[in-house]
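Chains adopt folds. We examine one example:
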Amino acid sequence: MKIIEGLKKIKDLKRKADDLKAKVRTHSAYLNIETPVYTDQKDQVSEWLQAHKDIIAEILKLRIAIQTTNISTLVAIDMPNGKSVEHSIAEWIHRRRDLAEEERKAWAGLTDRNLKEGTITQSTDQKVDVKIVRCYEPKVRDVKLEEYISEPSIIDSRLEVVNAVTDLLTI
């Protein structure tokens, strides 16, 4: 089974589990003056609960297989700077989820802080030219910002392919 198949199966199993929970909730009790919907409703509810338990066990098995695969499978991605970077699928997922954005925010913090260049007059009536001293290279900042803005979509495209072709390691 491929990673994407496992992910889709989990989604379907969750839907089935939700359906079983709804049935249990709806049919877990009735008044003694009502006709039960099922011949032996108590057994039916027990069967649904067992089926739900089995589905949850299958979801857990699939999740662990996906996590094991994600941690063990290395993937190289060509980045905008021309370098190929290799990480596990799990590392790429974390980069995609929030870490690339955190790096972008750090680089976005490199600003002129709305400081203004010009000439000021000191209290001694002496004029002084004021210049901004940047502790960074604007061109490097701009390149890095673009890299970190692009990184999530680059990771998404590569992982879509990887998820479609990579077999789960354990099932």
Notes: The helical segments are 3-27, 41-72, 89-108, 138-165. The mean pLDDT is 97.
